[in-house]
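task queued by scheduler; priority normal; single chain, no ligands, no partner chains; default sampling; output format set to C-alpha cells
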Amino acid sequence: MLRRMPLTPTVAIVGRPNVGKSTLFNRLIGRRKAIVHDMPGVTRDRITGTAEVADDRHVQIVDTGGLVPGDDPLGLSQQVFLAVEESDLLLFIVDGREGLVSADEVVWSELRRYGKPAILVVNKADTREARDRFSEFYGLGIDRMLLVSAEHGVGMADLREALALGLPELPEVEQPQAPPIAIVGRP
C-alpha cells in the first residue's frame, strides 16, 4: 500500500552576522531553538526547524551562521553555502537600522550565483529610521522585499504569506504505508 506525501520545501536564512537570522528563525518555528546573542559568530552549525506558513503549508527552515566577506578562519561559509545549495528559497536578511552596507552587497553577489529565488527581509524595522532606509535596499535588485521586526513579531504574517507564494510546488512522493494489523484471539 502506498501513500502520497508532499515533499517539504527548504528555506535557508542567510546574511551577515548579527542581522537577526537566529531571532527570525526562532520566530518562524515558534520556539527558541537557536541561540540569540549580540556577539557575532554564535551560530556556527546549521540549525533546522519546521515552520507553518500561509495556506497550512509547512517548510523546513535552516538557520545559518553569518557570512563575512573575506577571511573565513572557522570555515563557516562552507556550511552556509551548503545550506544554500540544498534550499528551494533564500531569505536574505539585512539590518534595517544600519541601512545598505557594502558587506550586504558582497554577500548578495556571492549568494546570487546559486540562482535560487530569494526574498529580501529588512529586519529590525521597528524604528522610523529603519523604515526610512528601506528604499536603499532596492539597489540589490531583489524583487521581493519585506520590512519585519523578528524580535517584536512585526511583519511575520506578511513574511509567511510571501514564503507560501515564493515556494515552488514540489512533487508528491509515494511512500510505503504499513498494512493495518489486528491481533485477535483469546487472552
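post-processing summary
- Residues 180 and 186 are 20 Å apart (CA to CA).
- The chain has one domain: 2-176.
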